[in-house]
Amino acid sequence: MRIPAVSDVSAAATAVVLGVAGLLAGAAPAQAAPPEVDLTAYPAVDPAPYQVFGAHPSTSGWIFETPGGVRCQDSLIPDLGIVCSGPLAGTDATMVSVSLTHEAMFTEPDMPESGPESAPPVLPVGSRFDAGNGVVCAVPAADTLACHAAKPASWPADTVDPPDRHYGEHGFVTSPDGSRGY
Question: Where do the record's region annotations for Disordered lie (predicted)?
Fold first, then answer.
């Protein structure tokens, strides 16, 4: 087995750096990163006025709208997480979803939106929504929404993953400065 000389490794590393730099030179300028949002910095609203009851637990939970017109439905079932749709700032997508079992997904829905006939209650700017199911959202500004999904605090710390999926911490931020999921 040949161990490469330092000069071989250095030359290879330089080639990789120059190759990546060449690719990036023709790339569109990067959009600014969305702001980091400390969800705990915002006061929580009472979740009761936002609660909805469906024919099945998967259609029950909480629903709210941001001042910017983004409508979110937070499922009673933690694995289902939250789905938000509307004019999402910082992205061409019109829908984003996240749960404790999957990272944020920004998409364009293939079907028309459905939902309650009346407008849901507005989650005010500068407030946080936390119904205790592991999904926490905040509205730092009228056009900014941040949501984070994790194991609910009510679950034992040693709750094991189901055999077909992994529990983790995931979320998203939509902002005029850019949007990101994790």
Answer: 158-182
Position 101: which residue type? T
Distance of CA 10 to the CA centre of its chain: 40
pLDDT digits (tens, 9 = 90+) for 126-144: 999 999 989 999 999 999 9
Q: Domain-by-domain residue ranges, the chain? A: 39-181
**105 φ, ψ to 5°?**
-125, 120
User: Which of 173, 142, 126, 137 lies closest to 63, judged by CA?
Assistant: 137
Fill in the amino acid letter for 157: A
CA nearest to 52, candidates 96, 116, 139: 116
Is-contact 112 101, C-beta < 8 A? Answer: no
Residue 12 exposed, middle or buried by CB count within 10 Å (0-12, 13-18, 19+): exposed
* Per-residue tokens: 109: 């829905």
Nearest partner of 102 among 126, 75, 125, judged by Cα:
75
Tokens of 181: 């999921």
> For 18-64, what is each residue's pLDDT tens digit?
333 333 333 333 344 455 889 999 999 999 999 999 888 888 999 99
- What token pair was written down for 157? 């710390």
